[in-house]
């Protein structure tokens, strides 16, 4: 049984991500943030659990475009992320990355990818580098269930398996690829089964339990660092929001969203902590602290200067 | 210590790879059949034996090869990835265009992907439709990529080293008709040149003929023949189509007052059109309309006789040069 303190830390990290996404929703509605934004509400346990198992001073995470949560879980400051989404000069990528192409390598986060599945071969490359540089680095490629049908993902899994590369392929199975249920797109919806075809271990894990995710990823990290090669983990989860902000989710059958809300990880862990004897007031305090932190970060980012258009040609070539 | 050796074009590439692997311990060489077999054209022969694990064979997985190169480059390796035929890069163009070319820019310089892609292209007798295309304009269109086409044995050595030393993603497009078409004296071990810069292959006063890649040899042949008719064509080898050495083109055109661009790639949407536009924009007075020579708008057919009708011949090139000078 993990320490209550560790569970409280998981809850705080998940709550920070949720509050961040709620504030992004508000800033999108006011028009301060523009364009297509993909939120990760409901999937927080995966990011928090996985990052707790990684050593982000050397390991490398390659998430999808639904990557605000990953970036925060890696430890990037909310202010720099808000500023990035708001196109501010203080943004973590100076306004060049935006919501869907954030990167924060100083926190172990090597770039979201808006091309579904494209991060998988890049993560394999990061792992390949590790087999030569003695860093002991493990690369983690995260992508959705829909991305499992991309050729690049298959190529990356085979390449990593045949060369025993230290990479973890982590599927965030939220049951939908955009607006289409994964069950309509594959004959075998137990996606982790594909691992055996490439000669690597695969497992389905509870993606709503940060501690379960942490343990599975920690085991995969240990294995990868020992030279035993890649692993495919399928973390079962759900979106409690649309594919993008503004998605009316007409495609979700009745009851689907209620079931998702009942299973989502933040309420679940809060209930668990109450059961372990943690006081409601302590949880309220945690919530208020995170809310203040996020409100403050957002307000500061809004007050920052916008990115300078005269710099737009910079950083194309070395 | 610089030394001169009599080498084929393929051996010149091999010598550059050997030097890069020896001088840059972070260099990796990989691709389909490059290690144990030494490459389907024999270009990478002996390198596996010499450099061990840093030279390895990959699955037939272009996305994994190029994506793996991007990821490895982000972490301090110098990947040199081979794409066996340029046509095959199309199955994994995402990794070049959306990934490699992007990463420095969108991370505001905190990440980069200094990788080299070696490939070869062009038509040769018996090559099929999917093994004959000239794709440099595809790559040259993409900000963030650099593209060169070595056409001499010396350049096969020099440009590849410039590419590997460069901190940006570079695509080196070789041509398989050159690999084993005779030996030349090649200077090895000289300074690694910075990226860019055209080369005058034949000086002349009457017309500037800008070209690159294997077609250059037909252009030189045409220029040689025309010299007998009193036409002195200046043949300029662009070598790098990105960054294009526009200064060298303008300087030459300023002297000759005439411009012909000849490439093996399709004329429509090709780099030739870009050069003509740049010359027009520079406002240089021309003595006759500029000319583009390239493949007409059709697919590349299998039969050598048909393909020969598509790829610009020495005669077609000579005729175009003559027409522009006599215009
Ligand atoms: C190569 C590619 N094809 C299509 C898209 C358009 N697209 C954006 S998100 C998405 C669905 C991805 O679903 P999944 O991988 O399950 O991830 P999730 O959105 O569920 O996190 C699609 C098809 C894309 N971005 N990239």
Characterization of this structure:
- The complex is a heterodimer of chains A (318) and B (327).
- With 318 residues, chain A is an alpha/beta fold.
- Chain A is 44% helix and 10% strand.
- Chain A is built from eleven helices and seven strands.
- In chain A, the strands form two sheets. A five-stranded parallel sheet of chain A has the order 1-2-3-7-6, with helices on both faces.
- In chain A, β6 (202-206), α8 and β7 form a beta-alpha-beta unit.
- In chain A, α1 crosses α2 (44-53) and α2 (44-53) runs parallel beside α8.
- The radius of gyration of chain A is 19 Å and the shape is globular.
- With 327 residues, chain B is α/β, with parallel strands linked by helices.
- Chain B folds into two domains: 3-188, Rossmann fold (3-Layer(aba) Sandwich); 199-326, Rossmann fold, CATH 3.40.50.
- Helix content of chain B is 37%, strand content 22%.
- Chain B is built from 13 helices and 14 strands.
- In chain B, α1 runs parallel beside α7 and α3 packs parallel to α4 (93-100).
- Chain B starts with a strand and ends with a helix.
- The chains are: A alpha/beta (318), B alpha/beta (327).
- Chains A and B meet through α5 and α6 of A and α3, α4 and α5 of B.
- Bound molecules: thiamine diphosphate.
- Thiamine diphosphate binds next to β2 and β4 of chain A.
What's the number of helices of chain A? 11
Span between N and C termini of chain B? 51 Å
Low-confidence stretches of chain A: none
CATH topology of the largest domain in chain B: Rossmann fold
* Helix/sheet category of chain B: alpha/beta
Bound molecules: thiamine diphosphate
Biggest sheet of chain A: strands side by side, in what order? 1-2-3-7-6
Shape of chain B: globular
**Order of SSEs of chain B:** EHEHEHEHHEHEHEHEEEHEEHEHEHH
Query: What distance separates the N and C termini of chain A?
Result: 50 Å
The assigned CATH architecture of the largest domain in chain B is 3-Layer(aba) Sandwich
Which CATH class of the largest domain in chain B? Alpha Beta
What's the number of domains of chain B?
2
* Most extensive interface, chain pair and sizes: A-B, 45 and 48 residues
Largest sheet of chain A: 5 strands, parallel
How many beta-strand segments of chain A? 7
Note poorly predicted spans of chain B.
none
As a percent range, the share of helical residues of chain B equals 25-40%
Count of alpha and pi helical runs of chain B = 13
Which sequence of strands runs across the widest sheet of chain B? 3-2-4-5-7-6-12
